[in-house]
Request: fold
Amino acid sequence: MSADRSEDYHSENDEEFVDNQEVSQEYELPAEKGEAPDEDLGQEDPGEGGEQDQENDLVELEDDSVQGFFLHEDSVYSVSVAPGASGLVCSGGGDDRAYIWSLNHGDDNTTYPPALLEGHTDSIIQTAFSYDGKYVATASLDATVKIWDVESTALVDTLEGPGGGLEWIDWHPRGHVVLGGAEDGSCFLWKVAPAEMMGIFAHPQAVSCGKFSPNGKAIVTGCADLSLRIWNPRDQSACIGRVSGHNFHTEPIISLAIKDDSSLAITGGEDGLVCISNLNSYKAVGALRGHDKPVETVTFGLPHSAYAASGSLDGSVRVWDLNTMQQRLVCMGHKDGVIKLRHHPSAPLIVSASADHSVRVWDERTGECVQLMRGHQDLVADIFFNADSTKVVSASDDKTSLVFKLNI
Reply:
């Protein structure tokens, strides 16, 4: 969910929902002005038992995290983890700042002091490490992407191009090349260190999502004009494939994932549809129905798996069978919208982040929730696995990033 969509979500969903089982203590509200206080309350000397009363009023929050990062001063929109054993994390958010910090030293900020990455003038909507971990990119609503050297944390390049704020970025899977899409319909391809504009892919409306194919030979973008477009990275003059129309989305595409063998794309739309497209024939091969609200996040399963998954603002995670193009099962448990999904790279597990402040782990074979990760106090906007996929790092609107250990 982008920074803009997160703000829209809060404005449209400002009612709080509380399960009776979660209420640990009841409080009597003070009397309205002009009303007499309840006689049973009486008057108590503030000097007698005041501190004890304050201690009794404290509500203990359930926190399953093993580590946290607390330096952001506004919502944290994105988190990413460097490949390899470095254990480095980059988080960015609404305070226009990004930080590089370490998973390997717990909450000890003296052994590896967090590095502040400053320079953006608007919210950072995404952070991403290059394939080799040498660089980290930060994309902002100020219409720039900044490239930082991870070892020295020095600013290497500032990439400029779009007239509007960036929606997303993606690194080439085997090169120091960055792709970025913007709300003004432009999609830019940059080479970094030194910075060089390699091409512009024009769209008639906002480019809401996009990625390199895993083999690096294609660029796939989702456009607000209801089309999925396929491009050759070496030739920006024309779109080589376009999926739209029959058996496809009827409202803008907002989420995208590509299968590990670069053969299929899965997209989620504001119409609640999940669509499967063949990237070789440029045809829609399935429109999967089940969600009744926008599909914020989609993912493919393990390599060679026949499963895909989607998460929606309707609160459900749905698993789809790609052989039959039918729903296999529904994972229910979140009490609010699902914002982000990650498939575990080596186990049949799906991790979901939700607006209900929680992260859940699901067995994609049974639909069972096998782990609940609590600790956040607001919408969880992003999640990422550490390098060996034994931990989950999260980003939240509560201004924090937490680390959870997977029970596998």
